[in-house]
């Protein structure tokens, strides 16, 4: 599957932890960054005024504040005999007002000459952006420059697009014509998620969950995401074309309701799609399971192995039982699975979220929750985490041994 490259979007990036003097506080209101050598490598030597800039502040829960503004790059000693001294000025806005010392700042120069500024106090999104931009060392208080070329020119695969989506960036789809032909049958109506999942799998006949369950799960989810976004674009375009009108003018409530429904559909569909494709993996691997079985206090783990009947049988050994939570994104919701099956002391949780922070994975280990991540996403985690992560194939091996014992 051709997905494009990161260099299609960006030419380079600088990153650093913010200092007090760079943030807007009662003690500082300078609205500028010193034009250090890394920043000069990114911005060049020519003055630029009023550069269109999108500012994003994003937290650990991926709650984001976005505002458009501008930046200006200039040599304040231009025309003087002294060595050049560059400054990067930024417009104050709701995002920059949230900046705090030690927050991480990523400043990326986009292909069209505009700038993307991302500020985050959160470990996970920091890890994800460090990985996405190929920044080899965690930047401290000085700017680190990374050109988006060569070995750092990442393919816009599932993990990269996951992170870009969190930033509100939707790259062009190289396979648009092929995808459009697949969804033509649906017109302007969303099919059920199960039908969409079946279409995603059937459109990739060379992908086998029997041979490589880790690859199959990612490829199927990636394809379903492609199909969904193409159909969503058609439906949204048609709805906007019809307009939002009311007898007394613009139908603002109708527009807001429609926008909210689009966002809610995206979130709900992703979780359902993941469970659909996991069912296909388990079937291809000959694994006995029940989806949504009820345990104590009406809890319903996503998957229970080998099934609900065995779980409720007090004579069935607890050591042969397994549960798996499945969440396309974690945020802080991973703690929900801890109480979903009392008989099972060590629980498993599968996610497609790349680069989760060490703080969270350390807490998972302490609470005997094993994280399962498709093999292709392991390199988005730090080396200290990778040895502990379990891939899909290894999880299936655990379940199979327990079922056959």
UniProtKB/TrEMBL annotation:
Could you say which enzyme class this protein belongs to?
hydrolase
* Name of the molecule in the record: Type-2 restriction enzyme EcoRII
GO MF annotation: an example = type II site-specific deoxyribonuclease activity
Highest taxon of the lineage: Bacteria
Q: What is the lineage of its organism?
A: Bacteria, Pseudomonadati, Pseudomonadota, Alphaproteobacteria, Sphingomonadales
* One Pfam entry name: EcoRII-C
Q: What is its EC number?
A: 3.1.21.4
- Tell me the Gene Ontology biological-process terms attached to this UniProt entry: DNA restriction-modification system
Query: Which gene carries the instructions for this protein?
Result: ecoRIIR
Keyword terms: Hydrolase
């Amino acid at each position: 599957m051709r997905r494009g490259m990161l260099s299609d979007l960006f030419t380079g990036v600088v990153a650093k932890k913010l200092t007090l003097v760079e943030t807007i506080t009662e003690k500082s209101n300078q609205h500028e960054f010193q034009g250090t050598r890394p920043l000069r490598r990114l911005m060049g030597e020519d003055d630029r005024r009023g550069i269109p800039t999108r500012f994003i502040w994003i937290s650990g829960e991926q709650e984001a504040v976005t505002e458009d503004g501008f930046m200006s790059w200039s040599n304040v000693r231009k025309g003087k005999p002294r060595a050049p001294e560059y400054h990067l000025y930024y417009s104050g806005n709701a995002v920059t007002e949230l900046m705090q010392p030690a927050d991480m700042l990523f400043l990326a120069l986009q292909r069209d000459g505009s700038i993307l500024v991302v500020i985050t106090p959160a470990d996970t999104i920091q890890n994800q952006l460090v990985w996405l931009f190929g920044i080899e060392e965690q930047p401290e208080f000085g700017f680190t420059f990374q050109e988006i070329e060569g070995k750092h020119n990442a393919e816009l695969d599932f993990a990269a697009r996951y992170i870009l989506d969190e930033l509100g960036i939707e790259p062009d789809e190289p396979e648009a014509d092929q995808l459009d032909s697949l969804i033509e049958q649906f017109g302007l109506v969303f099919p059920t998620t199960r039908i969409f999942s079946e279409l995603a799998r059937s459109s990739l006949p060379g992908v086998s969950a029997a041979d490589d369950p880790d690859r199959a799960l990612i490829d199927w989810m990636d394809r379903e995401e492609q199909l969904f976004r193409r159909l969503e674009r058609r439906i949204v375009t048609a709805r906007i074309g019809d307009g939002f009108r009311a007898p007394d003018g613009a139908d603002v409530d109708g527009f807001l309701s429609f926008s909210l429904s689009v966002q809610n559909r995206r979130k709900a569909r992703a979780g359902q799609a993941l469970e659909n494709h996991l069912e296909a993996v388990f079937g291809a691997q000959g694994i006995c399971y029940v989806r949504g079985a009820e345990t104590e206090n009406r809890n319903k783990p996503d998957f229970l192995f080998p099934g609900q009947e065995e779980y409720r049988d007090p004579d069935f050994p607890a050591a042969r039982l397994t549960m798996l939570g499945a969440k396309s994104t974690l945020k802080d919701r991973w703690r929900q699975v801890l109480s979903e099956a009392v008989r099972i002391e060590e629980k498993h949780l599968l996610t497609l979220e790349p680069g989760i922070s060490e703080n969270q994975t350390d807490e998972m280990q302490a609470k005997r929750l094993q994280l399962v991540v498709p093999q292709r996403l392991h390199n988005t985690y730090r080396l200290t985490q990778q040895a502990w992560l379990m891939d899909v194939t290894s999880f299936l091996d655990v379940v199979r041994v327990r079922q056959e014992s």
